[in-house]
Design brief:
By secondary structure, this protein is α/β, with parallel strands linked by helices. The protein contains 3 helices and 6 strands; from the N terminus they run ββαβαβαββ. The N and C termini lie far apart (42 Å).
């Protein structure tokens, strides 16, 4: 049977600041992100099955991404752990939804982060194909599974 790609799009609002950046984005600012998650798999081939003909039910994909990604990132702030973060918690409710991450929160790093967060929750027969994140209406970053198959090296 043919492998098919299925994509679901999501939106969320998030702010970030780029540590030591040499432009305006070094300041806290926000974006209306558009996120596209594409998975691949073979459609169910079981006549009479409620999911017959589907790679994944769009509602299942929607619920998973909503719970694991969107609900956590929406209306939050993300900053690099090397930035001065001590004041965030002191500001109370204004910054209760923040993520201090071990990377610069660029779109490029966010797509890799989102891919890592999504993969463990996918059903066994479904593979993550790509993550596309629009930071603005005409600028986006993409992560493709095919670009990221790296064999793990065991430390000896």
């Amino acid at each position: 049977m043919a492998k098919i790609r299925v994509t679901k799009q999501f939106g969320f609002e998030m702010s970030h600041a780029l540590l030591n950046y040499d432009g305006l984005c070094r300041n806290i600012h926000g974006h209306s992100y558009k996120l596209q998650i594409t998975v691949t798999g073979e459609p169910v081939n079981q006549p009479g099955n409620a999911k017959d003909g589907m790679v994944i039910d769009f509602s299942i994909l929607k619920k998973m991404i909503q719970e694991q990604i969107v609900s956590k990132l929406d209306h939050s702030m993300m900053i690099n752990k090397n930035a001065p973060t001590d004041k965030l918690e002191a500001l109370g409710q204004m910054y209760e939804r923040h993520h201090v991450v071990p990377f610069q929160p660029t779109s490029e790093n966010l797509v890799a982060y989102i891919a890592d967060e999504v993969k463990p929750f996918l059903p066994e027969h479904i593979e993550l194909f790509s993550v596309r994140l629009f930071e603005t209406s005409n600028s986006f970053a993409e992560w493709f599974a095919s670009d990221n198959h790296i064999s793990k090296i065991v430390d000896r």
